[in-house]
Design brief:
Elements: H1 5-31, H2 33-43, H3 51-74, H4 78-98, H5 102-120, H6 129-138
Helix pairs in contact: 1-3, 2-3, 3-4, 4-5
């Protein structure tokens, strides 16, 4: 049986994005969420965003990244993970644009584009737990 190249390409991009996100989140959790949240909130202190909101969201970021990353690696709840990831990127972009960090905003736009492409091509998600679960319920 020949592997469908488009489905393989989809899986490789989905897993790559998942590794990127899981890596960010898990390393930040391992290094200390409090230190990350404090540093991030300090960077946003000069922005017009409320400090308490920035600080609270900064605490959540590593856990959100880890969860999004792991679900994308496994390909479980892929549609929901992609939608949540796109919204997450929007929220991060609000923070960096409020802080006038245009170079980071450009990088985040690239992540947003990958989320868009993966969601657009979701029917190619054949190498995933979602697809395996779908196959078992159809039989």
């Amino acid at each position: 049986m020949r592997i469908n190249d488009r489905s393989l390409a989809y899986a490789l991009l989905r897993i790559s994005l998942g590794i990127n996100f899981a890596g960010h989140g898990l390393i930040r959790i391992h290094s200390g969420v409090a230190a990350f949240a404090h540093t991030t909130a300090d960077h946003l202190a000069k922005s017009p965003l409320p400090h308490g909101l920035s600080y609270a969201f900064s605490y959540a970021i590593p856990f959100l990244e880890a969860i999004l990353g792991l679900t994308l690696i496994l390909g479980v709840f892929t549609r929901v993970a992609l939608i949540c990831g796109a919204v997450f990127m929007m929220l991060l972009t609000i923070g960096v644009t409020a802080n006038q960090q245009w170079d980071i905003a450009g990088q985040q736009l690239l992540y947003s584009l990958v989320f868009f492409l993966l969601l657009l091509l979701l029917e190619r998600n054949q190498f995933s737990l979602d697809a395996a679960l779908r196959r078992t319920t159809e039989n």
